[in-house]
Every structure is written in structure tokens, then in C-alpha cells.
Amino acid sequence: MRNCFVFIIASLVLSTLLCKPVLAEDNASWLDSFQLGGYSSAGITLQRDQEAEAAINEVSLLLTWANDSRFSFFGEFELERPLAWNDDERFSRKEGHFDLERFYFDYNLSEKLNFRAGRFLTPNSRWNLLHAPPLVWTTSRPLATTQLFPTATNGVMLHGAIPLEKGAFEYKLFGELLEDSEQDDEELQFENVRGLRLSLKNQSDIGISILSFREQGLNATSYRMLGLDIVTTIKNVEVSAEAFQRFKNNNRDGGSGAYLQTAVPLNSLGLADWYWISRLETFQRPNDRSSERWLVGATWRVKPTQLLKLEFTGGSESLPESPRGFSASFALFF
After folding, report:
1. What per-residue confidence (pLDDT) applies to 302?
2. Helix or strand run (H / E) with residue 333
3. Cα separation of 229 and 209, whole Å?
4. What is the pLDDT of residue 51?
5. Are 127 and 142 contacting, i.e. CB atoms less than 8 angstroms apart?
6. How far is 96 from 330, CA to CA, in rounded Å?
7. Nearest to 292 by CA among 303, 301, 283
8. Which residues pair with 216 in a beta bridge?
9. Taking a C-beta distance cutoff of 8 angstroms, is the pair 137, 261 a contact?
């Protein structure tokens, strides 16, 4: 987790200064502009190399504030794995912990330019920006989207969209101001994060990102990373893919990863709102062997806000971030 307390204090001061005129005019209206929601998921995993496990994966609360002013707020507060069960420990709450996923303020400078300050998801990966279980097709996440770059950044961002004849051109320019003060034991540590993302949205969504950062650890190496992503529809089949390549300062290989995923509707088989999911992925950390994964499964869109996911994952060596075996999960917005 980032240095949340500093950001919270600074953000609250900023919100007070910006919202003071609104509060003086109509306090009730200001409070009515808050919206509260959230999402959660729970599932079971029958791993090929380990014991069976069931868990509530997360409970996330989403808090937003927006009215007719130029100012808006977004917060995501997550309780990760509040309850888990396996054959060895039975029920356990030891893994549960609180995480401040997002906490930022936006200020609209003009029709095509916005300023953001706080903690936000690093916008160099389409999957990373979606990330919520009710928004993605599978229970497991591609390795390349978790092990190569920082998934969140504490800092500032300039972002906006330029309308085109048949779509929009979006940009995000961002940089880190505060480093992590606390992190999970299994979480990779990064610093000095700077980046740019450009995307073209029309019938397809195509993005390119450039990122520079320093990965902390024994070698404390600096990297530059190029990322490409696309999502499109071909004859009602959703096709999505992402690819990342890291380079060290001496231009040597610093690790890479990619995945290709399809979601095929099964309406023609009489299975309304069911989708057949397939994914191939590859991933390699510096000085490690390449790891491959394949995934097949089915996902049922029970409601627009609810997904039931069934999947089998296989491939090369067992990895804690991507267990091989069968998984089933249910995700919903509330």
C-alpha cells in the first residue's frame, strides 16, 4: 500500500478548498453528490499441485463525488481475502488485509484536459484499468499484467479525450510523487514511475504505452517498458490481447509478457448469455525461464452486473500467482 495517510490529508485539504463555495451555498446538495457502490467475488480453486481452497476474494467499496462543478472524487477501498478455507488450515482470516486501491481527485481544466492527483491505477494496461472481477471474463489474471510493472501509482496525471469523426483519441501523462511506505510481502516494489498512454477508440480499442521505473530489490534495476493492447470484435467474437517488453538501461532484455484471449458467445447452442473463453499467455522475468499458460472455460453473464466463471488452467511450472487446475467464481457489483 502506498503512503496513504499523506495523500488522504493532502487530498482532504484540497477538497475543502475547492468545495468550500459549494458547501456555503448548499450543504445538503453537496452531500447528495456522493455515490456509494462496490463489488465482490468469491470462488473455489482445485489446484493441481496443492490443496483445494475456497475464499471470499475481495470486498471493495467505491465512493464517488461529482456535481456540476469542475471537481470530482473517486475512492476504492478494498478488503482482500477476508475469509479463506483450505484442507490444511480450514477457515482462516490471516490473509485478510485492507488496501487503498484508488483515492484521487480530478479537476476539469478544459473540455479536453483534466488534472488528477492521488492514488490511481497505472494506465499502461487495459486489464489493469478494468481489473474488477465483474468486468473481466476470467477468475485468474494474466501474469504479464501483474509481474512486470507497478499496478498503481501515487502521483499526478494529465488526461483527456479528443473527439474524432468515429471515435476518440485519449491520452494519459502521469508521474509518481510518493513511493510505497508499506507493501505486501509478495508484492513487487517499484519507484520513480513515469509514463504515457495513448489510445484510439472507435470500433476497436487500440492502446500504446511507454513507462519508465525502477524495480527495488537486490539489483535495484531501472527499466523502460513498451506496451501494446487491443480489443476488438470479429463476427461477434471479442478478441483482446496485450504485449509488454521491458528494457534495462543498457538496452538488454528486462523481461516480457503477452496474452491473447477470445470470448465466443454460445447463443447459437441455446446457451443465452454464456461465453466460451480461451486464453494463451507467455511471461518471463529477468534471469528466469519463460512460463506459458493456457486457459479454457465458460462464463455466464447472469445479469449485467453479475458473472459466473468456470475455467481450467494449465501450462508450464506451477506459479503461486497462476495456479494450475480448476477454478470457479462468482462476481457482482452492488
Report:
1. 98
2. strand 325-333
3. 9
4. 82
5. yes
6. 19
7. 283
8. none
9. yes
- Sequence-ordered alpha helix ranges (H) in 55-139: 126-130
The pTM for the full model equals 0.87
Cell of 21: 463555495
Q: Are 207 and 199 in contact (CB under 8 A)?
A: yes
Q: How far apart are CA 1 and CA 164, in angstroms?
A: 38
Q: Please check whether residue 191 is in contact with residue 216, taking contact to mean a CB–CB distance below 8 angstroms.
A: yes
Q: How far apart are CA 123 and CA 167, in angstroms?
A: 20
For residue 196, which of 235, 153, 136, 135 has the smallest C-alpha distance? 153
| Cell numbers standing for residue 107 | 479537476
**Average pLDDT, consecutive stretches of 10 residues, N- to C-terminus, the chain (334 residues):** 47 48 57 94 90 94 94 97 81 76 97 97 95 97 93 97 94 93 70 96 95 84 96 97 94 94 97 98 88 97 98 86 91 98
Type of residue numbered 222: S
Rounded Cα distance, 45 and 119, in Å: 31
Strand, helix or coil for residue 133: helix
121 touches 151 (CB < 8 A)? yes
Q: Which three cell numbers stand for residue 172?
A: 494519459
Query: What residues contact 20, with CB distance under 8 A and at least 6 apart?
Result: none
DSSP string, 146-213: TSSS-SEEEEEEEEEEEEETTEEEEEEEEEE-S-BS---TTS--EEEEEEEEEEEESSSEEEEEEEEE
